[in-house]
Task: structure prediction
Amino acid sequence: MSNHLHKIIFPTAGMGTRFLPTTKATPKEMLTIVDKPLIQYGVEEALAAGMDEVVMVTGRGKRSIEDHFDISAELENSLNASGKTELYEIVSHISRMVEVAYIRQKQPLGLGHAVLCAAPWVRDECFGVSLADELILSKGKNAMEQLRAVHEQTGASVIGLACVPDNEVNRYGIVKAHDEDGFLRLDDMVEKPQTELAPSNMAMIGRYIFTPRLFEILKTTKPGKGNEIQLTDAMCQLAKEEPVYGVLIEGERFDAGNPYGFLLANATLGLQHPKYGKLLRQALRNIL
Ligand code: G1P
Result:
């Protein structure tokens, strides 16, 4: 069993094609949900789950992610000097919340390849992977904490799942699973299947914990769907070699990397926001 789980990979090199033209010059991870960018929600979730060694696999045009987590001395000094204490606290907290390492994925060869780029940094440890465009709001344990709980009981790889409608299975990696001693053991997964070929409607929703064996498999994983090295294909092989478990995540999930999911996330969090919630509710009522 492994309680030593500190490392987490955020693949952030994707081109954000579902959100063009916004993502032409702005990383999708920097899209704002109410008052902070998606990537910050992801990092805060990971930190709360005890994963405090973060690596981001970035690409060209992703500099603003690095700047977001870096110290901005000019801004901090200016906020301090003008007595804007509350803003100063917010800004300086972000730059000090975590040490982040950055690795460049030089070519867009797929999610599996992005994860493999971080292998020299992770080495021989279990590690998390989080896709920041999937925003998950949980009342109790957050999504990564839910995965971690099963990982600590089993020592195995654990994948976050959610049931999706039949007409959406072709947007996700879909799993085939069976019950085993109270856990959901995954037998197979397929990347973005046609509805008729989907083994279930349980989709992978961008939260993963892996044993380091995954890296060995990724090294020999051939390009699959879309001619990309798919994480899903490597997971399939992993599930053949050792147990891989699924967890149906408790929480409300938003696929915020596309405009509709983004709007829904903003509306939901906006309505809950202590400062803007009441005003937004009234304004929406007026519109409707
Ligand atoms: C990726 C994965 C897919 C997963 C999805 C979750 O797809 O390849 O298996 O279900 O993230 O959002 P992408 O959205 O990058 O095409």
About this structure: Residues 111, 131, 134, 172-173, 191, 203-206, 231-232 surround 1-O-phosphono-alpha-D-glucopyranose (CB under 6 Å). The chain has one domain: 2-287. The mean pLDDT is 95. The first helix runs from residue 38 to 48.
